[in-house]
Amino acid sequence: MLQRVYMYTRYERMWHWLQAFMILSLFVTGLEVHVPSSVRLLGFETAVEIHRVLGFLLIANAFLGLFYHATTGEIRQFFSTSPDFLTMAARQAVYYLRGIFRGEPHPFEKNRNRKLNPLQKFTYVIILNLLLPLQMVTGVLLWGTQRWPDTVGKIGGLGILAAVHTLGAWLFVAFVVMHIYLTTTGRTPLANMRAMIGGWEEVEYGADEQAGDGFD
Amino acid sequence: MFLVTVSAASATTPPERLGPPPATTIEPPARAAAGAPLSIAHPSIRLLDTDGNDVRLSGRPVSPMRTCNEGCHDTEYIAAHNYHALAGQDEQSLPAPGQTPGGRPWDTSPGAFGRWNPLTFRYLSPADDARFDLGTPGWVLEFGWRHVGGGPAVSSGTGESLLAIDKAGAPTVETSVLDEATGERRRWDWRQSGVAELNCFLCHLARPANDARLEALRSGRFAWAATATLERTGLVERTPSGWRWDRSRFDADGWVRGDSLGIRPPGSAHCGQCHGLVHAGEDPVWPKPGLSEWSTETTGQVFSAQKMFASAVNLSGKYGLDRPWDIHAERLMECTNCHYLMNDPTYASEVFELRPAHLAFDSRRQEIGEFLKRPDHNFVKGWSAQGTVANSLDGSMRRCEGCHDAASAHAWLPYQKRHMERLLCEACHVPKVHAPARRVTDWTVLLPDGGPRIEYRGVEGSVHDPASLVVGYRPVLLPRDIGDGSLPRLAPHNLMASWYWTYGHPSRPVRLYDLRQAFMEGGVYRPEIVAAFDENGDGTVALEELILDTPRKTSTVRGRLQALGLEDPRIAGEIQPFSVHHGVAAGVYVTRACETCHSKSSAITAEFPLADAVPGGVIPALVGDANVRRGAVIEVAADGRLSYRPATMDEGFYVIGHDRSRGVDFAGLTIIIAVILGAFVHGGLRYHHARSRREGT
User: Fold this and answer.
1) What DSSP string describes B129-198?
2) Distance of alpha carbon B297 from alpha carbon B435, whole angstroms
3) Cα–Cα dist B517/B561, whole Å
4) Is the pLDDT of residue B567 over 90?
5) Average pLDDT of span B176-182
6) Which residues of B touch A166 (CB under 8 A)?
7) Which region among B298-307, B483-492, B665-674 has the lowest average model confidence (pLDDT)?
8) pLDDT level of residue B61 (50, 70, 90 thresholds)
9) Three-state secondary structure along chain A?
10) Could you give the CA distance from residue B596 to residue B522 in angstroms, rounded to a whole number?
11) Which of A161, B322, B529, B571 has a Cα-to-Cα distance from B173 of 20 to 30 A?
12) CB contact under 8 A, A34 and B652
């Protein structure tokens, strides 16, 4: 039996879509800056300017998001203290590799207090604590090469910096592709997408009351 | 009128020479309007000979060192502080050659007196060489046209006057000249030829007679070179046997009015006599190929205020070129506004490192009188790739940013500081050179006129044909250190490749004399040369056949050189960069589009053609004292053309939009494709299983 749950607050949704828009735009403008002879949309100079502005907006939004999640306690969604975390992550992986084809139920039903499955938690921790900061730092240094040439020189110069930033961008794109695909693994292919748009999601009755279900 | 006839018979028979470049002379004022040399107030002077006697009375050649020294200018000081005069003699690595930054085993100095140049080919023989090419007198005969006198044309490397060298002693480099008929040394009598004193008149007369000066030098009358320079003043007249002073031009006491001589500070036209095409006036600009317009030949630079569309050059897109050949010429700047004298108080700048810490400004200045007494004739200089003499003065001149406020003028430029750190202003402000420039000097063969095979860039067709379309060229951007500890910066250059034969160990260039012996006999090609080079079998050697592009041609020439007794003859190749600092543009003619550099087809690593062919298959290398970073790929294309592609990334440049890590891109794209494929396979399987479940299968 299903019940409608207000899964994502207005701010969470706005934050998510703003990040999505900026990451996508950063990818497009970054691609034009990276290979301007192959991608000609805005012109190199405009692409650089937009990429720069979007980069700083992304950083601002990331810190706003961190503030929100820290002050509302939603940051706990991303962490697990369970000693069985690896076992549960394995269960989730097995589900994606086998159970999902057999029509088995999700091993961990989603609810307001547990929006992320173990693999999502792991992925988001990596993305938000490693990849995003890496992109932010390398991006700022690329922008600030002329302000801090010695710092850039010490870490290998523009060549190393740009290579790391580019690799991070490719990984981000890979993440976005996988992220979009995995949104289709909800109760219905568009259920997760609808939830992130409207905030409401249908979950199994009683799941919403199952706070602290053993893995968080 | 009293005319003093002067006997100036040839001091000694000058050897036969390769066709000398014509003299570059300053146009008469009637034709030269803006920028024409002007006279300034200068006291009357007495023209004195070397003994201090009035030339009117003695009939001897004028001595600028005595004349200008008469209570006014310390000419000894001027001659000693003057790299134009010393030409590297003061930097000679005596006695052993091969110790110069250029690395050539036969070079003895970094200046024109001792540094071999493939453009001029002849070389100053090291002291103990068995095969003798040029000694000091030969050097003056051959290269005096680009030398202001003084220095090696007056005294030996040890400071001894050439006039005082023991005539009876063993012949030395200072006293020997090559006999072109026999290839052997013969003695030169300096007492007959006299020495070529520092010629103040060449740069300080309104209209120096450079053609007459060259004629005096080439005829071996060195002492008369300065006198000949006065020809246009009317003070001296040419006679069939020499020169004679016109007494009517002097006053009763032997004085000559300063304004009648037109004595003045040098203008750009004076520099142009040796350095390249400096043009003023309304006659259309027309660069002439050849070494007489040296910098124009080597780079295509033209210093003129004239709009390009008004020139006589058959320029591509000519009528759209509404710009001067050089913006600084248009703004009435003279060469000496940037290349001023070291101690010129007008341009004095404080040496901050030496200033007492408690002073914010040191107001002490040299008096103008002191300066005029001892003007240091070491001109301030920059960091050019080809200016190898007096490198201790490199960086002494103001660069563009010494006058221009680049920051305010480039407010539109993103990442301005970064661009300024990695680019010299010329990189964008000389985006194109509009005159042809030499790109190949090939001495592995001799043309019928005895000169090298030459290729030009920037022109479609023969450079000598006025109808050939001049398309110009984009200079190659090479990273260069400017010696202030900053990062290397990109600067525009022309590259000239040269090939030539060397022999022996340590190697020496094959002398022009020997090369002629190898190729010619009685003024025509030797039969074995014709047999090897005549590819179409018409019995003659056509110009297009004159290139070492087959093993047979190479082995034939090598065999000829060996037959002349040259040990291990082999081909050497080198690339000389010539930095381009003139021909500066402004406005729409300047590089502004980011994509010029920030794109796959970036100008920074664009292929720069070097030569249509590679003589003997020898890939040339950059000269040792090029003052440019060496990261580059020199490639031979399938059709045999040679090109130079800078590898700026190897030199620490990373140009976003052009440079990238292919490994990173490959890894990233592989990951993305793998994820997309994985999603498709996973999604497809989900769909398949869901459908199977629905159908109950």
Assistant:
1) -SS--B-HHHHHHHHGGG--SSGGGTB-TTS-BGGGS-TTS---TTTEEE-TTTS-EEE--HHHH-----
2) 9
3) 8
4) yes
5) 92
6) 660-661, 664-665, 668
7) B483-492
8) very high
9) CEEEEECCCHHHHHHHHHHHHHHHHHHHHHHHHHCCCCCCCCCHHHHHHHHHHHHHHHHHHHHHHHHHHHHHCHHHHHCCCCCCHHHHHHHHHHHHHHHHHHCCCCCCCCECCECCCHHHHHHHHHHHHHHHHHHHHHHHHHHCCCCCHHHHHHCCHHHHHHHHHHHHHHHHHHHHHHHHHHHHHCCCCCHHHHHHHHCEEEEECCHHHCCCCCCC
10) 54
11) B571
12) no
Measured distance CA(B446)–CA(B454) in Å, rounded: 10
User: A111: closest CA among A17, A212, A193, A190?
Assistant: A212
Task: Give yes or no for residue B472 having a pLDDT over 60.
Answer: yes
Å between A7 CA and nearest CA of chain B: 25
Q: Name the residue in chain A with its Cα closest to that of B593.
A: A45
Q: Which of B459, B27, B23, B583 lies closest to B279 in space, CA to CA?
A: B27
Cβ-contact B575, B644 below 8 angstroms? yes
SS3 B600: coil
Q: Which residues of B touch A167 (CB under 8 A)?
A: 664, 667-668
List the single residue in A38, A101, A159 with the smallest CB-CB distance to B685: A101
Closest CA to B18 of B104, B163, B138, B174: B138
**SS3 annotation, B305-363:** CCEHHHCCCCECCHHHCCCECCHHHHCCCCHHHHCCECCCHHHCCCCHHHCCCCCCCCC
ipTM of the prediction greater than 0.85, yes or no: yes
pLDDT in the model for residue B694: 84
- HSE-CB for A39 with a 13 A CA cutoff: 17
Residue ranges per domain, chain B?
A: 268-414, 429-651, 664-697
Tens of pLDDT, residue by residue over A57-90, are 999 999 999 999 999 988 888 888 788 889 999 9
Among the partner-chain residues A36, A45, A159, the one whose CB lies closest to the CB of B654 is: A159
Two tokens, residue B150: 């003084």
Whether residue A177 and residue B595 make contact (CB cut-off 8 A), yes or no, is no
Contact A181 B683 (CB under 8 A): yes
The predicted-structure confidence for A86-137, as pLDDT tens digits, reads as follows 999 999 999 999 999 998 888 888 888 888 889 999 999 999 999 999 999 9
Min distance B401 CA to chain A CA atoms (Å): 18
Helices A157-182 and B662-695, axial angle in degrees (round to 10): 0
The single residue listed with the structure tokens 């976005």 is A176
Measured between alpha carbons, how far is B297 from B24 in angstroms, rounded to an integer?
A: 13
β pairing state of B632-636 and B642-646: antiparallel
B152: its two tokens: 């090696």
CA–CA min distance A145, chain B (Å): 7
The whole-angstrom distance between residue B489's C-alpha and the CA centroid of its chain comes to: 21
Highest mean pLDDT among A44-53, B260-269, B379-388: A44-53
Q: How far apart are CA B120 and CA B113, in angstroms?
A: 12
A188: chain B residues, CB-CB within 8 Å: none
Token pair of B425, please? 């202003």
- In this prediction, residue B524 has a pLDDT band, given cuts at 50, 70 and 90, of very high
Residues of B with a Cβ under 8 Å from any A Cβ are 414-418, 421, 487, 594-595, 598-601, 649, 652, 654, 656-657, 659-661, 664-665, 667-669, 671-672, 675-676, 678-679, 682-683, 685-686, 689-690, 693
Which residue among A44, A49, A174 sits closest to B671, beta carbon to beta carbon? A174
pLDDT at B519: 97
CB B451 within 8 A of CB B122: no
Q: How far apart are CA B697 and CA B689, in angstroms?
A: 9
Residue B194 CA to residue B140 CA, distance in Å, equals 12
CA–CA gap between residue A170 and residue A166 (Å, rounded)? 6
